[in-house]
Amino acid sequence: MHELEAMSRNVSIGGLLLRANDSLPPRTQVSLTMDLQDPQFRGPVRLMGEGEVVRVERLEFDAGFAIAIECQHPITDVENHLPAIG
To answer: Where are the domains of the chain?
Structure first.
């Protein structure tokens, strides 16, 4: 098991793009824990999921790696933490 700290650059229902200092091989199965904080949320949100690394690219100027992960299940839990609009 290997733990990797990364910052999300783009998150969608079906996956996410991360920036990390270390790389992971494509097709690696991963377990994710994301902590989200935003003034729109009722409190801190922790999302957990599983996915597979589908693409890895080295970023310019020794800025680490971009890692694309496809999630096995859609990321939808965040909707339950947004305030009601209306």
So the answer is: 6-77
Rounded to 5 degrees, φ, ψ at 43 are 180, 180
Report pLDDT digits (tens) over 25-50: 999 999 888 887 778 777 777 788 88
- Joined tokens for residue 76: 């939808």
pLDDT of residue 76: 55
CA–CA separation, 85 and 59 (whole Å): 39
- pTM (global) more than 0.85: no
CA distance linking residue 30 with residue 2, whole number of Å? 10
Antiparallel, parallel or unpaired: β 65-71 and 45-58? antiparallel
φ, ψ for residue 81, nearest 5 deg: -105, 0
70 close to 34: Cβ distance less than 8 angstroms: no
